[in-house]
Amino acid sequence: MRQFFSFIKKEFYHIWRDKRTMFILLGMPVVQIVIFGFALTNEVKNAKIAILDNSKDAATTSLSAQLNASRYFDIEKNLVSYTQVEEEFKKGKIKLAVVFPQHFSEDLLHFNKAQVQLIADASDPNTANQLTNYATAIIMDYQNRITNERKLPYTINTEMRMLYNPQLKGAFNFVPGVMAMVLLLVCTMMTAITIVKEKEMGTMEVMLVSPMRPQMVVLAKAVPYLLLSTINIASILLLSRYVLEVPINGSLILLVFESILFTLVSLSLGLLISSMAGSQQAAMFISLIGMFLPTIMLSGFMFPVENMPLPLRIVSNIVPAKWYYNIVKSVMIKGVGLHVIWKETLILGGMMLFFLTLAIKRFKIRLA
Amino acid sequence: MSNGKVITAEQLTKRFGDFVAVDHISFDVMKGEIFGFLGANGAGKTTAMRMLCGLSLPTSGKATVAGFDVFKENEKIKKSIGYMSQKFSLYEDLTVKENMEFYGGIYHKSDKFIKEKTTFILNELHLTKEGNKLVKSLPLGWKQKLAFSVAIFHEPEIVFLDEPTGGVDPVTRREFWNMIYQAADRGITVFVTTHYMDEAEYCSRVSIMVDGRIEALDTPSQLKKTYEAASMDEVFLRLARKAVRAAD
Amino acid sequence: MDKTKEKVVAGVVVENIIKTYGKKKDMTALNDISFDVQKGELFGLIGPDGAGKTSLFRILTTLLLADSGKATVDGFDVVKDYKAIRKRVGYMPGRFSLYPDLSVEENLNFFATIFNTSIEENYDLVKDIYVQIEPFKKRKAGKLSGGMKQKLALSCALIHRPSVLFLDEPTTGVDAVSRKEFWEMLKGLKQQGITILVSTPYMDEARLCDRIALIQNGKILSINSPQGIVNDFSKPLWAVKSDRMLHLQNELQEKDFVENVYPFGEFHHVVMKNESGSEQLRNFITAHSSENAVLQQVKPDIEDCFIDLMKN
Hints:
The complex is a heterotrimer. By secondary structure, chain A is an alpha/beta fold. Chain A has helices at 2-17, 19-39, 58-69, 82-91, 104-111, 125-150, 171-201, 203-208, 214-242, 252-276, 280-298, 310-316, 320-334, 338-362; strands at residues 47-53, 73-79, 96-100, 117-120. Chain B is an alpha/beta fold.
């Protein structure tokens, strides 16, 4: 056991003394949370729009004012002719143009029917979609108010409730995703790299020709990263709770337990990669292509798994991050307990055992 | 390049902070000479060599290489010298010919020159059949000889060799030195470092660095006379043991 | 079953070891190698890079499996009893095998613990070496000079009092002074009864071993004591010198009484085909007296023997 602890101590020296590793290990989670939290949000705020008002009556003025007042839009320009619309889009200044035809108010009052044209820059389809939705909502709102005054016989009012995330905050979606990514980065990539580094330096040769059991060498390399991961789990949870204001609705203990389980899966994967890679570059390459890409693409964190074609949906099942992502979403956001996520937990546990056994079996007691 | 001097150094000094790596060294190297540059690990050999190759700016002093000032004209110096070290020599994943093409290209040689020179060298080394083989498939001794040919491919005035024969068998080592002699015969000045003391005997003149200074500089036979030693090995040990500087 | 006797006598036994690399097994690293090393012997494997020295050391330290053949270290089989061997050997690989970001002291401490011992326990063994680097014990290993790194690596390989010590090219890239000091240290260790196998490309180091094996292209050219190897060199050997060394060599190369001529320090060594050639050489040198040609008979060196064995 003394050998084991001595090895872990040495490993911590390596980590403390390498500023770059330290940054990746402890600074990265913070940076990722901040980037995702503030910069990469997909909510649209203060989008610049242009108004072409051919009517200039009470109704259009009032509607324009309401659009401008909402937090989604800022009126950048009032246009005078239709040809200007395209010009403005080409300049890239505006995201949406609202065109009121002539006699808007009269049409509305006399024929109970008036038209508004919404033109959006669909080179970014998601944003275009969102903007037209917001604009439509504001216009509907206005319509509702005037119809209420005039009492029409039949109306269906839809009332929406957004469960678990009433403000539709993006953070609710990406915090679980970032947790999966950070733990994977720290555990899989860093462990794989540090073991392969010893192979490259020639120190692994000396370790093998020592009485220390080869499996112990590998496990001792993994322990420091497990400890560092728990620090990361804590820092991500604190940041998301107090900076991004994402609530932790379920049991904190359960959340931490599940995170440690996922950490162990990632560590096992790191050990497995280290047994395959011959150089630090190879280890990094396998980690990035084999782990990060699937995590980003197939875990459901960026793109919903339900919308994928069947083969990809099947493949997504072997991505550990998918299960972890579901677990974190369920516990943190929905606040459910183990009785709901036992299946995911078992799958992660099984994956860990599988990868760990494979890694230890594959680890060679000799050089070739 | 007056009086056939191809390298001149006057009070050449390099400091790293408080540490004086090279301490006011002065020497000249003549055209066509094989100049042995010896010293223990950490004596300042590598630093001195880097300054002469235009890779590192001296702190003070004066030096010219091939007539160019090491302070101001290091780009011109680089065009007039060749360099070969034990570690970096050739690209293992390129063929012999591709390596030569590459180095010829680096020194702006014409296609015709490269082609003729390549054929000439391959003939000389009896490697005509191996021209299209990957360098990594060749035995170490051949690689070493090839690396030297590539270092003087562009017919530089001076070639710097940093421990060129490390780990090479005694026969190849001698074949290598034959190539050095031939190059020197053609007028290429050879500036060489080595840990093999018998190789020091092959040099026209030898300098021995101790603690950043040149402690001795003469022909091997004169050095042996001065220090009343039977071999260069003895001369070197006597001088190098005086070192007080422990580490790099 | 003569196992007990074997244990007493032999430190290392190598029998018909073959090792090849490559998918088609077409690169032969070791070609049917056999030799043994007595307990407490200082045994040198002398040969250039690529001769197979490292492969052999890796097989003996249980890091590689041979294709065929058998080997024991301290009486233990390198395949079956690899765990026992790993407990009792010290190994210094050719590459710098310390942790550059750990200090001198931390490195030594770490290796001591890995081998289930402590610096204090075996301090007497490493003391002579360690005192030389102790003033720098807080310095990072990566910042040491070549000679110091080598001393630290040796201390680390010795800290668990191994019975057999494998040193793979410990003096490569190290200057002549440090090399001398290193061999002094090995002599000291031999006094302690440790069996030492050391490999080196430097022929001049061969003299310092009890026995040596000259190795080239995976084959052992000769095994004997350094003196024995030199005694086997039966052809007449002369050293010649003149003002035109390159010319002298080229001319002698053409002579039919000369078997081989090659530079050797300030002289050229000339190997004769037989005794009668010596007379012809003397005449040749006299004819070149205007070029200050000098001739003297010399005793062969290990390097002469190696060149001769390589040629044949």
